[in-house]
Amino acid sequence: MSFDLKEIKHIAELSRLRLTESEEKLYGEQISSILDYVKMLDEINLEESKGKNKFLSLSGGVSDLENVWRKDELKAKSEEEIKATLSQAELEDGYVKVKRVL
Amino acid sequence: MELNKLTIKEARTLLDKGELKAKEITLACLKVISENNKVLNACLLVDEAGALLAAEKADERLESGEKGGLLGIPYLCKDNIMVKGLKTTAASNILENYIAPYDATIIKKLKAAGAILLGKTNLDEFAHGASTENSAYGATKNPLDLTRVPGGSSGGSAAAVAANLCLFAIGSDTGGSIRQPASFCGIFGFKPSYGRVSRHGLLSMTSSTDVIGPLTKTVYDSALVLEAISGYDELDATSVQAPVDYYLEEEKENLQNLVVGLPKEYFVEGLNPEIKARIDEAVLKLKELGAKVKEVSLPYTKYGIPVYYLITPAEISSNLARFDGIAWGFKAKESYGLQNFYKDNRGQGFGPEAKRRIILGTYALSAGYYDAYYKKAQAVRALIVEDFNQAFKKVDILLTPTSPHPAFKLGAQNADPLAMYLEDIFVTGASLAGLAAISIPAGEVSVKDGGGNLAGEKVETMPIGLQLIAPKLKENILFRTAFKI
């Protein structure tokens, strides 16, 4: 399967990545060959595989783990901790300054 | 005595008897690092002042009568793990000047145990790779043959242990990144079960398989480090609440009644025949010690790589979305507007492999392709997990080669990402299923076109590793077997 130029431009846009023209071409070719390889998964008939073991969950992932949640409580951070965490941000009156949106 | 060459166990005895000071070992390691790191490029950062301070504190504790564990033992840590106040780059330009604001849980544990951090080791950018050539700060060389890669992505840690720059090193393993470099460098590389060791403070790559583990000179040392870094952590949502066993005790156990499985799909055409011979020798040894050996089948093995290289990029595209250049990290100059600022920061900050994986992952998760790629991969992953479940009904442990070949030459594979992905062929299965696994040195095989090693000698053989895979949280069986090989 080929990953054409239009497609890679679209995905790069979704990924917020600025690519050069030569990168678009190179990654497009490389990703096409990877997608050709993973096509191998189409050999597997999931319904058939599932039929052999009715207890098998095909939702995937690491299914025996449970989510761990913490209480949704605000914890105050010291000014020092905030500065360390946002170490390279431009701060003004305790807010992070970003580029203009419009 | 060259102190940097000591194992943890040897150093432990001398430190506890008061015949050696932590500061002496630390100075010996720092000296060897300064002599060899220019050639090897194993360390991205050396914290001499911090290490000496930690050594003095360890010596005070030793003098006051404290003993055991990792007190006074110098180590190196992969640079995708946070150490408060030190640069943590993940070998990426996007984190070039990033200073970690807190300690990873394992670093906290190692600090409390009195281990001495010497510095941070090189890796493939964000741990994306199998050769450490994807580092933004240059490739690491294999100390056993400087014309070869050390493997990856924990290549800096593996090279550092093999070259005795430290007594042990910490790495991370997402799809073989501790085991494969351990195999290439002739050392022990241990991947704990998913959830066994806290990942709080590890820069996320593939959250559903990432684990942290030790690279060491012996099995004993591996068990000792694992005991120190394991355990439940409320700061890691995937941490497992299970008791940590006494892995060192396993050395006394015997192998009577142990059933070892050889998965036939791992002994395929293309496997270097000398590697097959080394594995056969290890199998014979286990038989002589009373273990039974059985062939088993893991029929979905060949789908491990395609599944891994869909799930991994998908999770990477999400995990690396946080690198936008606003709160920290690389900032491009002269971008107009927020969207352009994001794109420029990320386009210029990430290296080629990170960008490829972000694009591939975004694609696999995008509307219209999600079912065909990501969902399908997750379903096949469940089949791979089930393969292992079935096999472990018949056997206690699996034995396989770690890699189909010894360390390859620098530059031999980095033009072809797919060839590099296939490096992980024997190691992704245990990662996708969250199992415990270790790579153990299994002898040497001959290599053509050998270069020179760190000592300047011409190389004719290179080490290879064998892999043991145990069920989830059965690290005790893994160590029981590993101690005997």
Protein architecture, described:
The complex is a heterodimer of chains A (102) and B (485). With 102 residues, chain A is mainly α. Chain A has a domain of 48 residues: Histone, subunit A (Orthogonal Bundle). Chain A is built from 4 helices and 2 strands. A two-stranded antiparallel ribbon of chain A has the order 1-2. The two termini of chain A are 38 Å apart. Chain B has a domain of 248 residues: Amidase signature (AS) domain (Amidase signature (AS) enzymes, Alpha-Beta Complex), CATH 3.90.1300. Helix content of chain B is 37%, strand content 14%. Chain B has 15 helices and 11 strands. Chains A and B meet through helix 1, helix 2 and helix 4 of A and helix 9, helix 10, helix 11, helix 12 and helix 13 of B.
Number of strands of chain A: 2
Unreliable runs of chain A: none
Q: Bin the strand percentage of chain A.
A: under 5%
- Going by CATH, the architecture of the domain at 5-52 in chain A would be Orthogonal Bundle
TL;DR of this structure?
By secondary structure, chain A is mostly helical. Chain A contains four helices and two strands; from the N terminus they run H-H-H-H-E-E. Chain A has a domain at 5-52: Orthogonal Bundle (Histone, subunit A).
Itemize the secondary structure elements and their pairings.
The complex is a heterodimer of chains A (102) and B (485).
Chain A: H1 5-14, H2 21-38, H3 46-52, H4 79-85, E1 91-92, E2 95-96
Antiparallel strand pairs in A: 1-2
Chain B: H1 8-17, H2 22-40, E1 43-46, H3 48-63, E2 74-78, H4 105-113, E3 116-121, H5 155-162, E4 168-173, H6 179-185, E5 188-191, E6 211-216, H7 219-229, E7 259-263, H8 273-288, E8 292-296, H9 304-319, H10 338-349, H11 352-365, H12 371-394, E9 397-401, H13 417-421, H14 428-432, E10 436-446, E11 461-470, H15 475-482
Parallel strand pairs in B: 2-3, 2-4, 7-8, 7-9
Antiparallel strand pairs in B: 1-3, 4-6, 5-6, 5-10, 9-11, 10-11
Helix pairs in contact in B: 2-3, 5-6, 9-11, 9-12
